Structure formats: structure tokens, C-alpha cells
Amino acid sequence: MRLLTLATVLAFVAQASVVPPPVDDPPAGVNPTSETIVLAGGCFWGVQGVYQHVNGVTSAVSGYAGGAKDTAHYEMVGSGRTGHAEAVQITFDPRVISYGRILQIFFSVVHDPTQLNRQGPDEGTEYRSAIFPGDTNQERLARAYIAQLGVARAFKSKIATTIEMGKAFYPAEDYHQDYMTLNPTQPYIAFNDLPKVADLKRLFPDRYRAKPTLVRGR
What we know:
Structural class: alpha+beta
Largest sheet: 6 strands, mixed
CATH superfamily: Peptide methionine sulphoxide reductase MsrA
Oligomer: single chain
Order of helices and strands: HEHEHEHEEEHEEHH
Number of helices: 7
């Protein structure tokens, strides 16, 4: 995670806008009280930090997805040769927030889905934009939504987000959990991630929650 220049930060903030919600966003299925999805959108500090402020999210855990269990370690993932992406496992109550709204926030404020294998100052396949569906229904809805955004030309460039089925999630080391909340003055967090939370509050005021849901339960 490298430090962003102020100009890059301001450019990203200026671009943040709400994309259309999914046309196909059915109500909760067989487990109507809890659902889980794994999303990757650059450094997991910011992805986790945003979703911890989303009303209806009951847990957001930083980790790795896309590779093998024995390579799910920060130093190894950073090599870019493990197949892993820095990812966040998001558990939410579909009675409060739908899967479609989770994806809408992902594409609107969490990251730039048109960037291939990078986000901001971070480069490499471990920073790719990816959705790791928990089941075939989540996969179908994600593919349909990406196609919908493409037809609507919601972005100036093609969406680079991959959909990767059958990939396990492995929690990251303890020191990565709740990193944004615990280190708000750390330069990378202050310049790169806190503006995303501000965008969440600005663009999704009905979904924003001031008190984050933390892994450590504070």
C-alpha cells in the first residue's frame, strides 16, 4: 500500500458517483436472515472500512481469496504470484440490505472497477477487482449486473471486475482487521480510504451507519 498524492485522491473523490441499482435484485432466498459475499477491490483496509459503515452489514473481515490456503499470507500474497486477491468477506442481513445494494455500493464508492489489476497507487493481481460468489444465484446476479452497467455505460471504460467461483476465503492476519478504524491518521488511510467512507455517507445516506461493525467488537 503506497501513499497517494493529493491530486490523485481529489481526482478519485470527484469521480465517485452512484451507479444504477441492479434491475434483478430478488428478496432473500433460503436463508433470509444472513448472507455472505466476498469482494475484492484493491487494498482490503478500505473495502472493509466502507462496509463496516453500511447499515445491514453484520461482519466485514479482511482476507485473501483466489489462491491456495498455504499461500494466504500477507508477505506471500504481495508477491503477486499466489493467485490471491486482497478481499473482504461481507456478511449481511438481507432483510435490511439486499445483495444488489451491496454490489451497487461496491461499484459506486468502494473502488474503480475499470482499473485492471490495480487500485490507486497499488498495482498487481492481488489488487484486482473481483467478486467471489457464494453460490450460483449470486454469480448469476453479479454477471447480470455487470452486463447491465455495461449497457448503461455507467463508466467511461470497460468494467474489469472478474467473477471467480469456487474460491475459498482465508482471513488475514489480526493486525489487518479494523485497520481503518484503528489507524485513521495513517497517511494511506487518511488520503485513500476515509474519502470512500465520506462518499458512502454522501451518496448512500440511507445505508450509512456512523458506528462501524468491527471484527474486534469494539
